[in-house]
Amino acid sequence: MSKYLISFPSAAMQVPDHELAEVGRDVHAVIEEAKAAGVYVFAGGIDESMPPVLVAADGTITLGGYPWAPMLNGGFTVLELATRDEAIAWAARIAKACHCQQELRVFGLDSRT
User: Fold this and answer.
1) What are φ and ψ of residue 47, in 5° steps?
2) Running DSSP on this structure, what letter comes out for residue 2?
3) Which of 19, 58, 73, 91 would you call most buried, defined as having the most Cβ atoms within 10 angstroms of its Cβ?
4) Computed from CA positions of residues 21, 23, 27, 32, in that sequence, does the dihedral angle turn out positive or negative?
5) Span 2-106: which CATH code?
6) The model scores a pTM over 0.90
7) InterPro entries in the record, alphabetically (predicted)?
């Protein structure tokens, strides 16, 4: 079993205001299906009202993320699945519910965990 990250940046979700309630309902339904199937690990979104900080090894804090990296925002779902094909199928369900494409990645986990 592998853990898969299914995600989208905030800018990808171009949903008219009058459809937001439907999208929220549909997304929560897919998440409940993932929980019922026993594949759900966690889901959520980046709180964009809290700016990121960089924390150095000595504990020094710098406001903002890496200046050279794209902004990290949007929604994330992590599912534990047996195959990439299963992950693609779940990503498609989430994409349909969210009304936007989803990026799919597999985690390379520490073998000691």
Assistant:
1) -75, 100
2) E
3) 91
4) positive
5) 3.30.70.1060
6) no
7) Dimeric_a/b-barrel (IPR011008)
32's tokens = 């409940």
Band of pLDDT at residue 66, cut at 50, 70 and 90:
very high
Mind giving me the DSSP string for 24-89? Answer: HHHHHHHHHHHHHHT-EEEEEE--TTS--EEE-TT--EEESS-TTSPP--SEEEEEEES-HHHHHH
Burial (CB count within 10 angstroms: exposed 0-12, middle 13-18, buried 19+), residue 85: exposed
Cβ-proximal residues to 104 (8 Å cutoff; 6+ apart), any chain: 4, 5, 6, 87, 88, 91
